[in-house]
């Protein structure tokens, strides 16, 4: 059934992105919003908007009954969940479907399987995709954790089966630390995710984070090449690239092949990402998790392939086949995305919501800015601090970094502090220019004082 009326159950820049993709497909858009988001850009751009609850996410963007009721009331025939919030909630998928609407994403069963990080590891192994050495399934209690760790060797990562957003991951260097940490981690996971389940993986030292974008229609699946997201702070990505400069063609082909094998094995429908850690020395890669939704960094893939991933998700959800075959997915040039957050990088990334006073958005060939700002906009303090993303595309990685610097210098978000100074400093760092970094590189670099008011020419 082709989708005619799409309900957007999210906010911020991704809501704007979805509204525009739907409009381009001739679909009527209905934007959900909280009481704090009445002035949001997606509310203004959508054909209709409806308030679903109070400011707190629990009352609005995470409120399944309120969202389903609002979608039903506005006669939506489909719901797009964006990322974060309910995008990986099988309960939300079931509620949407029980109300007779389409969920734009995989089935509830696929989310149950791939959204649980332990079950996803098992599915990956069954499809012949290498996973990080670790526990067979969940570990119950400190004694069982120690047994696994002794087998695989320290340091180990203790991870929440239901974790996400860089949360629910701890490192144990030795047995004493593991014994102390395991019960705490279980309690925290229970509190944060409503599921205290833990598993253990060997901590890979200095890995690169490489992920593969896939698209599936339930029958066929294709990959849209890889992204590298090794520049991370607190296990959250801050700077992302397509492709991964550290991969040779043989490794790239094998990585992408494995991702398609797994997508086909679970008859995947929609856009999804398989995340891996890559050991540069041994050239081994290990699956870590699958994200069964559109990702924040999807635009870099769109830049190098020319594919509109959000439009493709919507088409496939409406029952169409994939519009491209594997050999129609090119890999042109190099793209970089940086996340612009309302945080002060010179003050320990303290959130800095406020009123936008003076906004200049860079433009130009190969420059794309996905955001939800406007001059005079009051950024609400209740949600994630992501304001938008600056994405650049050029023939080579070097040229992309140069273009990124120009775009960041042109970007002005007056009235608030943002992560722009961090990205400018990164663009100038010799290690970043040389591609000589890994997931554990950025934090020590920051701790060593590489980002100071002097190095950035003062605050913006
Ligand atoms: P991506 O790989 O797309 O960058 P992230 O893991 O950074 O995905 O998550 C995307 C967004 O959703 C971020 O803004 C993050 O804060 C939020 N998010 C992700 N997982 C969770 C979660 N389990 N609970 C709440 N927010 C989450
Ligand atoms: P999330 O669901 O929060 O995104 P992931 O399992 O994708 O969690 O891991 C997030 C990040 O944590 C990875 O990109 C990597 O930097 C680090 N990490 C996760 N597992 C390991 C591991 N086994 N060894 C080393 N680093 C890891
Ligand atoms: Mg992840």
Task: Describe it.
- By secondary structure, the protein is of the alpha+beta class.
- The chain has three domains: 5-104, Rossmann fold, CATH 3.40.50.20; 133-202, Dna Ligase, domain 1, CATH 3.30.1490.20; 208-447, 2-Layer Sandwich (D-amino Acid Aminotransferase, Chain A, domain 1), CATH 3.30.470.
- It is 33% helix and 26% strand.
- The strands form five sheets. It has an eight-stranded antiparallel beta sheet, sandwiched between helices. Strands 3-2-1-4-5 form a five-stranded parallel beta sheet. A three-stranded antiparallel beta sheet has the order 7-6-8.
- Helix 7 (142-152) crosses helix 8.
- The radius of gyration is 21 Å and the shape is globular.
- The model has no long low-confidence stretch (mean pLDDT 96).
- Magnesium ion is lined by residues 275, 289.
Q: Classify the beta-strand content into a percent band.
A: 25-35%
Strand order, main sheet: write it out. Answer: 13-12-9-10-11-14-19-18
Q: Can you tell me the CATH superfamily of the largest domain?
A: ATP-grasp fold, B domain
The domain tally reads: 3
Put simply, the count of helices is 15
Shape assignment: globular
Helix content: 25-40%
Described by strand count, sense and barrel closure, the largest sheet is: 8 strands, antiparallel
Mean pLDDT figure: 96
Structural class, by secondary structure, is alpha+beta
Task: Please give the CATH class of the largest domain.
Answer: Alpha Beta
Radius of gyration: 21 Å
Bound molecule types = adenosine-5'-diphosphate, magnesium ion
How many strands?
Answer: 20
**What is the CATH architecture term of the largest domain?**
2-Layer Sandwich
CATH topology of the largest domain: D-amino Acid Aminotransferase, Chain A, domain 1
Give the low-pLDDT segments.
Answer: none
- Characterize the quaternary organization of these chains: single chain
Give the termini separation. 50 Å
């Amino acid at each position: 059934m082709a989708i005619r009326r799409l309900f957007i159950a999210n906010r911020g820049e991704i809501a704007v992105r979805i509204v525009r993709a739907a409009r381009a497909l001739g679909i009527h858009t209905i934007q959900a919003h909280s009481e704090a988001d009445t002035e949001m850009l997606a509310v203004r751009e959508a054909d209709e908007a409806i308030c679903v609850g109070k400011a707190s996410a629990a009352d609005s963007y995470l409120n399944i009954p309120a969202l389903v009721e609002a979608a039903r009331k506005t006669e939506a025939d489909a719901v797009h969940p964006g990322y974060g919030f309910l995008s990986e909630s099988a309960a939300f998928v079931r509620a949407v479907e029980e109300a007779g609407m389409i969920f734009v994403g995989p089935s509830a069963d696929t989310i149950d399987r791939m959204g649980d990080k332990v079950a996803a590891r098992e599915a990956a192994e069954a499809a012949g995709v290498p996973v990080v050495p670790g526990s067979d399934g969940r570990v119950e209690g400190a004694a069982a954790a120690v047994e696994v760790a002794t087998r695989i060797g320290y340091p180990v990562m203790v991870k929440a089966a239901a974790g996400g957003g860089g949360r629910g991951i701890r490192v144990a260097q030795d047995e004493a630390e593991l014994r102390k940490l395991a019960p705490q981690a279980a309690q925290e996971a229970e509190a944060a995710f409503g599921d205290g389940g833990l598993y253990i993986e060997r901590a890979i030292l200095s890995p690169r984070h490489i992920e593969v974008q896939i698209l599936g229609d339930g029958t066929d699946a294709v990959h849209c090449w890889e992204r590298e997201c090794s520049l991370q702070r607190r296990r959250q990505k801050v700077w992302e690239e397509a492709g991964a400069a550290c991969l040779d063609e043989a490794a790239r082909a094998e990585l992408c092949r494995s991702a398609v094998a797994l997508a086909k094995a679970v008859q995947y429908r929609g856009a999804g990402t398989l995340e891996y850690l890559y050991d540069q020395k041994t050239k081994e890669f290990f699956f870590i998790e699958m994200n069964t939704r559109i990702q924040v960094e999807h635009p870099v893939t769109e830049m190098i392939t020319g594919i509109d991933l959000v439009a493709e998700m919507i088409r496939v959800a409406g029952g169409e086949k994939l519009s491209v075959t594997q050999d129609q997915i090119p890999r042109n040039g190099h793209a970089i995305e940086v996340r612009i957050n309302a945080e002060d990088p010179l003050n320990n990334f303290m959130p800095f919501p406020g009123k936008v006073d003076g906004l200049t958005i860079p433009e130009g060939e190969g420059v794309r800015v996905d955001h939800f700002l406007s001059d005079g906009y009051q950024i609400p303090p209740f949600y994630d601090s992501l304001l938008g993303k600056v994405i650049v595309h050029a023939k080579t990685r070097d040229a992309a970094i140069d273009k990124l610097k120009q775009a960041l210098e042109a970007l002005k978000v007056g009235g608030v502090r943002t992560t722009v100074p961090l990205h400018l400093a990164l663009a100038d760092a010799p290690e970043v220019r040389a591609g000589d970094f890994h997931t554990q590189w950025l934090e020590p670099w920051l701790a060593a004082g590489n980002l100071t008011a002097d190095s950035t020419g003062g605050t913006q």
